[in-house]
Design goal:
2 copies of one chain form a homodimer.
Chain A lengths: L9 H15 L1 E3 H8 L3 H13 L4 E3 L2 E3 L8 H6 L4 H12 L5 E4 L3 H9 L6 E5 L2 H7 L5 E5 L2 E4 L4 E2 L2 H7 L6 E4 L3 E3 L3 E4 L2 H13 L2 E6 L10 E4 L5 E5 L5 H9 L3 E4 L18
Parallel strand pairs in A: 4-5, 4-9, 5-6, 9-12, 12-14, 14-15
Antiparallel strand pairs in A: 1-3, 2-3, 7-8, 10-11, 11-13
Helix pairs in contact in A: 2-3, 5-6, 6-7
Chain A binds a DNA duplex (30 and 30 nucleotides) through α3.
DNA sequence: CGTGTTTTTGCACGATGTTGCGTAATTATG
DNA sequence: CATAATTACGCAACATCGTGCAAAAACACG
């Protein structure tokens, strides 16, 4: 398939690259390729063209702002993306194009939404304004917003209005956010209303999925959300406890692990933090 | 079968293309051809003609707005932040603490939400994810999200679900976004559903307010939103046409101007120079 | 009402633009 | 120096574009 569908104009893509460049100060060819759903060659062509226009400065692995600071470019590029970004990318691999997906509240789920490629075809349902804003305007995403009073502690609509609206939708997949995961209790949340809404969302969906950062492992939150049983998929980070993951998998839960994670040991000062 | 019955006039079709272009910032030849039921060649001819008139900029696969790059809502604000921020700050001065305010869609309204002080006590209602995300987590703001399918062209929920939910709320103030303002037609929008929702929001609210960037002045959008009559407040930029503003004020509309601490009705000598 | 003209549209066809992939060259890393 | 990653270049496949041309409808005129 050398041809293509005109999902996005060339100038638009380059404008987005420029925006990302101005925002972050750097862009990696690999990330851009995945973000826009094109090959790295295409991204490189764009970068080359933009560099010819003086809009960026070409470097090995990507590009920098023209007024180039002589920062150690290579280290920044090879720098590990945020842990949650990696989790998000792994989750995206598990999504099916064209399916109806509910995005629960949570910063991890926001990262998942961010990781969604530009032209991924999806019907997204969410009760979280931040996730809706992230998905809004994305080509290929049909966005359904669950309305209601936004709980300030959770940052999502959890009230009766939201519940009523959720009841009209039957997602294929519910992407859960969780505050804690134990072998005995399963997934749990810290806030009562939040947990109740999550349970409803799970019940309405054909299957559920949760991305678990390692700091949630073994943590016992107050309110039950989902037991460790099918239909449930879990995605763990690379440094998750091997034994625990195996035990969980034995209970009928589909367990995935973030692959290709390099050492997280040395670098803890996150340089490229995104707000 | 080359000829055909005149289903719609050429100028009519081009006007709709222009409206779509102004609304979304981009049009794809393929989509337009399917939308209007004509061949892509015809669409290309239109686009070529419009480009010759300077109404659009031809790109491979479709067309964009002439000068600016107005791709998504998010990047639109970053273009000229200063002007909209000033507009936003002026609007905030007119808000009453403790009141219930509906935030309509639009980049200007997003800027208004951004300008809201951190601890401003307010019940905010909005159908726009971007605005909801901005207001979410703010202390003092009770946030009500209007749910429903998010119209990708507008970036807000406009469907029946949203309308039903809106009907349960009676805001004190409706902050309108507008695509155009003329003395005769009043406030208007480029997209039918958007305009319809705006009218409902106005009708539900005790009074309405709109912040008008100067580039909207004299622009005639397709669909009526609000006539120039009370209860309505308008906020203009400092460089707005003096004569037009005065005429508008004479129709019973409360007119304010950026940079002027008082309303136009009493003070009109203000001349803040902003480029 | 008939006829010639103009406008509009769709189609064919060659030209141009865009993309992904294979391959070789280049660069960073140890 | 060895290895892996990144890059540039050529190529083929496909999409889009521009132009010329013919058909059909609308129009102007007698």
């Amino acid at each position: 398939m050398h041809g293509f569908g005109m999902d996005q104009f060339v100038s638009e893509r380059q404008a987005r690259i420029l925006a990302e460049l101005r925002a972050q100060g750097r862009v990696a060819a690999q990330d851009l390729a995945q973000t826009f759903g094109v090959s790295e060659d295409t991204v490189r062509r764009d970068l080359r063209e933009m560099a010819g226009r003086g809009e960026c400065e070409r470097v090995y692995g990507g590009a920098l702002l023209p007024g180039g600071k002589t920062v150690p470019l290579k280290t920044r590029i090879s720098e590990q993306p945020d842990r949650k970004v990696m989790l998000g990318q792994k989750v995206v691999e598990l999504l099916h194009e064209g399916s109806v997906v509910f995005f629960d509240a949570g910063s991890t789920n926001l990262a998942i939404a961010r990781s969604l490629p530009e032209n991924f075809r999806l019907t997204a349902v969410t009760n979280t304004p931040a996730i809706a804003a992230e998905l809004s305007g994305r080509t290929g995403v049909e966005l359904i917003m669950i309305g209601g009073r936004v709980d300030p502690a959770v940052g999502a609509a959890l009230d009766l209005t939201a519940i009523r609206q959720l009841e009209t939708i039957r997602p294929d997949l519910c992407i859960l956010g969780a505050c804690g995961l134990t072998l005995e209790e399963g997934l749990a949340a810290d806030i009562f209303e939040d947990a109740a809404f999550k349970r409803l969302a799970c019940a309405a969906s054909k299957s559920s999925l949760a991305a678990i950062t390692s700091d949630k492992l073994g943590l016992r939150a107050a309110f039950h959300v989902h037991a460790l049983q099918a239909p449930l998929s879990l995605v763990f980070e690379a440094d998750a406890d091997e034994a625990l993951v195996r035990k969980i998998a034995l209970q009928g839960v589909e367990a995935h692990r973030c692959g290709a994670a390099t050492s997280i040991n040395e670098k803890s000062a996150s340089r490229g933090s995104i707000s």
